[in-house]
Amino acid sequence: MYRLLVAQVLLGCWSVAQPFCPSQCTCVYHGRSDGTGSRSVLCNDPDMSDIPINVPVDTVKLRVEKTAVRRVPTEAFYYLSELRYLWITYNSVTSVDPGSFYNLKVLHELRLDGNMIATFPWESLKEMPSLRTLDLHNNRLTNIPVEAAPYLVNITYLDISSNKLTTIPSDLVDIWPPFSGILPSANASQKIVLGLQDNPWYCDCRISKLIELSKMASIPVVLMDQVLTCSGPENLAGVLFQRAELDQCTKPSVMTSATKITSPLGSNLLLRCDATGFPTPTLLWTRADGTAVNITVVQESPGEGVRWSILSLHSIVFKDAGDYRCKAKNFAGNAEAYITLSVDGMQASTPSPPINITKQPNDQPVTSFAETKTPFYTTLSPALTTRAAMTTIPPLTTRKSPGPGGGIQRSPPAGDKPAKIQQSKGGKGSMTSEKSKKRADLKDIEVVEETSDTAVLLWRAEGLSSDVPLTVFYFPNDAKDDKETLDTEVGQGKLLLEYLMPNQVYTVCLVTKGSVAGKEQCVDFTTLDNGGEDGQNKILMIASGIACAVAVPLIVVLLYKIICLCCKGNSSRNNGADDDLSKETYVKFETLTMKQRTLNGQANDLWARRQTQESERMLLCSRSSIDSQMTYKSDSSRSEYLC
Fold it and tell me: Fewer beta carbons under 10 A from the terminal one: N or C of the chain?
């Protein structure tokens, strides 16, 4: 009796320890020989209207199928931290809350096919970092926003077939090879499976990448159904993607003003980028590492399919040097170009770390920098300990030990003179540093495009700010007191000289503020002689006169001929009717009675004599030959018609 009671208690404890299974679900535990296992739960009661909340916490696979569930609430599965497979298929779900999949860190597969979902919370995918399979087949999705692209990067199985999608964002296609830019290995076994069929795709430039993807072979993207057809526009309705040819859809092409630019320190600079394509591409400036450029950018589209952009850099410094990327993008694709900027100038000197001079055990002083802690030897007095500021010196990598009485000399950065540390004979060390500045001046002064009364002056500023005032004066060599003065700025680099004398030698000089014009800042030039232009004008006038003298008589003769032809045509039309009438008439010789005629008839006989033409004679003869067959058969009768 005691043993029976103990067994009953143990059986009750075991039943309590087992996880509780919802009444409308079936819970199955799949054990293994090693003592481990997994639990799956199937809920397929047609009367179930809500997601079950008392599912065992160790559930690995949960299936809610063919129920009346209409909504997936917030944090519906947060306690199922071991859930790897979640199937909510062929229900009546119309709404999915953005927080529905909270805490599903190990979920690998999510299937929501066979529902009535019109809007899916794509941002909820960030709660499932391990998700690889997403099935939204046979729903009512009408669009996929561009914001969904970052959340689908890790998805290797995506089924969005049998929805109401007409287009897909170009950025979403960019996450799949080959548009992602990642070249997979030749023997890569990982494939990306896409279900895109049975959607009313509108074939235009927005899905041009998708159409191009369907035409590719030997890529790591597999389409569930290769038969993808266009539903619009009208001229492409029913056409397969593989045979669709899109009009007015061109990938961008980018061209920059230059590929490498070197600019002086402190100058202003404009970087230009031009792009063509259809639809009109957008332009974006970034640095080589992808960071956005927080500088003034001007963009303009002068016409359809063309766009240009200008990046403005003011008072450039050394940190502005590097690569600038101009990226053009439209629905058909993207392209990019790079501009490398180099800054030319003198690096400003900065104080170096303090130098500590201490004494070694062997009575030889050692000098070291506070930051680098790299010592070098000097022959200063053993009892001397001092601190000095020096020009920036790079860290030392070797140790040098000069002989007695020697010193140390290091090379500072490029552009500066060497800094010297010397020892005096009296045993006291001295330290000097010399620096030279690059001379600010105007270079490459020249005059171009000379005419008889104008010329263009060009120059290049070196080491001067672009807003420094500049005075330009010029004068003829034979009248140096007759000076003309113009004021401008150094940054202009170009000036037009007007109202000059023809065939005259001029001297032009440039003077910046606070300086005096020197020999190297002046240049001579000569204006053109306008006599050559007058000679050309005279030649043109003579040629025009000759042409007129020859052409006018020809025109008069031509008009005369035309008038004569018109007059002759009118007269010929008036006489033509009479001539035709005379040609078409002939005389019929007939008698009223039949009697004999003598050849020597008198004047009162019915006999007419008339000169007949050969054509009339032939006509009469032919008629008589026909009518002569009808004759009286008498000796006294004869033919009525004679030729």
Answer: N
